[in-house]
C-alpha cells in the first residue's frame, strides 16, 4: 500500500554516506519504524489520528483545520497572510456550506462563477482561487475529502512584467529627487538584487564592511533558509559607510524606526507618485538587477548565486519577464554577427 504525505529527507554524513529520515508529514514528527513495514503504517496512522481535527463537516471547518495544521505552520509568514486574507472572502461567500456538497457535481461551476466576480482585480481573484484550492488539497492529503473542485479552473491574470524594468532615465530621476530614507532602500535593491522583505529586515550586524549577509526568507517548507553573502558594490559601500550605525536595522523610515511591510509599500507608492514614476514597482528593481547583470555578461549561475533563485528560475525571469522585449540584448546578437563577418572578410 502506497502511503501519501510522507516527507523524506536525505542528510549527508561526515563519512560521505547519505542517511534518509522519514517524517509523518512535512514539518511533522519523525518516524521511528522502518519504511515499508506494517509497523510504519501503524505509526503513521497513529500520528495522523492524534493530529486530526475534531470534526470537519463544513468548508469553514476544513479551512480552520488547515489553519491549525503543521502544513500551514510550515508556510512563510507572507504566504500565511495571503491565505488568511483570502479565507475571509471564502467564508463570506460560503459561511456554512456542507463539505460533502463541495464534492458533488456543480461545485466547480459555482467556484468559477465566484472567481469571475473579482475579474476587475484578476491577481486578487487568482490568489483567492489558489487559497481555496490549497484547502481542498489539504483535505485530500488528510483523507477528509476525495477531490478538489478547483482543478481545471483557468486563472484570470495573464499579464507579465516583461517591459517593467527601471530604465536609466527613471533610475537617474529617482536618484536626483527621492527622499534620503527611500533612496537608501532603492540603492540597496539595485545593487544587491535581494527581496524587499529580506532588505527591510537587514541589520548592521549583517554588514562587515565588504559584504552583506542575507538569510533569504522565501524558502520551501521543511527546508532551511538560504544564506547568501553579497559583495557590496563600491557605490553602495560609500553610502553605507557614511551612515550612522546607532540603529538596529539598516533601512528605516523617516522617523528612524524599522519599516513595516505595509508602511514601506505605502511610502514607496507615494514617493513614486510624487516623482511621476509609473509602470514600475520596487520589486522590479530585482528584475532590473538580473537583466543588467546578464547584459554585462554574468552567467545565470553567477546571478543565481546572489539573488537566491535557482538557475532555472533566473532563466525563466530572463526569458519570460524581462529579456523578451529587451532591445539592447537582441541588438547585441546582430552586432556580434557583424563583427564576425568583418573578421571573416579580413
TrEMBL record:
Top-level lineage group: Bacteria
Family annotation (InterPro entries): DNA_brk_join_enz, Integrase-like_cat_sf, Integrase_catalytic, Integrase_recombinase_N, Phage_Integrase
GO biological process terms, semicolon-separated: DNA integration; DNA recombination
Keywords from the UniProt entry: DNA integration, DNA recombination, DNA-binding
GO molecular function annotation: DNA binding
Pfam families: Phage_integrase
Tyr recombinase domain location: 161-335
Keyword DNA-binding among record annotations: yes
Keyword DNA-binding: yes
Family: Belongs to the 'phage' integrase family.
Name this polypeptide is given: Integrase
Organism: Rhizobium leguminosarum bv. trifolii
Classification of source organism: Bacteria, Pseudomonadati, Pseudomonadota, Alphaproteobacteria, Hyphomicrobiales
Amino acid at each position: 500500500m502506497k502511503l501519501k504525505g510522507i516527507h523524506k529527507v536525505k542528510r549527508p554524513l561526515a563519512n560521505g554516506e547519505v542517511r534518509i529520515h522519514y517524517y509523518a508529514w512535512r514539518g511533522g514528527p519523525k518516524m521511528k519504524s522502518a519504511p515499508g513495514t506494517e509497523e510504519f503504517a501503524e505509526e503513521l496512522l497513529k500520528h495522523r489520528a492524534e493530529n486530526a481535527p475534531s470534526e470537519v463537516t463544513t468548508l469553514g471547518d476544513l479551512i480552520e483545520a488547515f489553519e491549525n495544521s503543521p502544513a500551514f505552520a510550515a508556510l512563510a509568514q507572507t504566504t500565511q497572510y495571503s491565505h488568511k486574507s483570502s479565507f475571509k472572502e471564502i467564508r463570506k461567500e460560503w459561511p456554512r456550506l456542507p463539505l460533502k456538497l463541495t464534492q458533488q457535481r456543480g461545485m466547480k461551476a459555482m467556484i468559477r462563477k465566484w472567481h469571475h466576480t473579482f475579474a476587475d482585480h484578476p491577481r486578487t481573484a487568482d490568489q483567492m482561487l489558489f487559497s481555496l484550492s490549497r484547502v481542498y488539497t489539504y483535505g485530500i492529503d488528510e483523507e477528509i475529502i476525495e477531490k478538489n473542485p478547483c482543478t481545471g479552473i483557468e486563472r484570470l491574470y495573464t499579464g507579465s512584467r516583461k517591459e517593467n524594468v527601471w530604465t536609466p532615465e527613471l533610475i537617474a530621476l529617482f536618484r536626483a529627487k527621492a527622499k534620503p530614507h527611500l533612496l537608501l532602500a532603492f540603492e540597496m535593491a539595485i545593487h544587491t538584487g535581494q527581496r524587499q522583505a529580506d532588505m527591510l529586515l537587514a541589520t548592521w550586524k549583517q554588514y562587515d564592511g565588504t559584504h552583506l549577509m542575507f538569510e533569504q526568507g522565501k524558502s520551501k517548507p521543511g527546508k532551511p533558509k538560504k544564506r547568501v553573502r553579497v559583495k557590496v558594490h563600491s557605490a553602495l559601500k560609500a553610502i553605507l559607510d557614511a551612515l550612522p550605525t546607532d540603529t538596529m536595522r539598516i533601512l528605516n523610515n523617516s522617523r528612524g524606526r524599522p519599516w513595516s511591510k505595509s508602511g514601506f509599500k505605502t511610502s514607496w507608492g507615494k514617493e513614486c507618485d510624487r516623482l511621476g514614476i509609473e509602470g514600475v514597482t520596487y520589486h522590479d528593481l530585482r528584475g532590473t538587477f538580473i537583466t543588467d547583470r546578464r547584459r554585462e555578461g554574468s552567467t545565470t549561475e553567477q546571478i543565481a548565486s546572489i539573488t537566491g533563485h535557482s538557475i532555472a528560475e533566473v532563466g525563466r525571469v530572463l526569458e519570460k519577464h524581462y529579456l523578451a522585449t529587451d532591445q539592447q540584448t537582441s541588438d547585441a546578437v546582430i552586432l556580434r554577427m557583424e563583427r564576425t563577418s568583418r573578421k571573416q572578410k579580413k
